[in-house]
Design goal:
By secondary structure, the protein is mainly beta. Helices cover 6% and strands 44% of the residues. A hairpin with a 5-residue loop joins strand 3 and strand 4. 16% of the residues are buried.
Length: 160
């Protein structure tokens, strides 16, 4: 069995550009930046930024074009695809992540909470806040609609 899966969490480097294909299907293109921190052989802290080309089709493209803006964090799940074309007698290549699903990252305080979107979902966005990545844990504290207990948690009450 073969696997082609990409999971990225980063910030948009530009607003999505939404166009229509000759078939009428919507396509959105943009890029996101991811950061990686590491220590070099001298022990000093370094940071490296990688830029990823993202492409989405159909309803996913429409939703991304409508709600995503430059600088906004986003979690993207998709597949890696390299396409090629010829221009001026020169062969060009472009590697992209084709979006299968995505989720909005946390927003600044005071703005509305948004959900995620999957291609198979019948609606564009969930009616519940879906700033979750996996496992049902909220992506950030203080999400609207989540009631946190006022009392402190006693470690002896934890069953494991």
């Amino acid at each position: 069995m073969y696997l082609n899966k990409a999971l990225l969490y980063g910030n948009l480097t530009r607003d999505p550009e939404v166009r229509a294909l000759p078939s009428g299907q919507q396509v959105a293109t943009f890029s996101i930046a991811t950061n990686r921190s590491y220590k070099d052989k001298d022990g000093s802290q370094k940071e490296m930024t990688e830029y990823h080309n993202i492409v989405a089709f159909g309803r996913t493209a429409e939703v991304m074009g409508q709600y995503l803006k430059k600088g906004r964090p986003v979690f993207v799940e998709g597949r890696i695809q390299t396409r090629s074309w010829e221009a001026d007698g020169k062969k060009n290549y472009r590697t992209e992540i084709v979006v299968d699903s995505f989720q909005f990252g946390p927003q600044a305080a005071g703005t509305a909470s948004s959900g995620g979107y999957e291609k198979s979902a019948p609606t564009a966005a969930s009616s519940e806040p879906a700033n979750e990545v996996h496992g049902g844990a909220p992506a950030h504290e203080g999400s609207e609609g989540i009631a946190y207990p006022d009392d402190e948690i006693n470690p002896e009450d934890i069953p494991f």
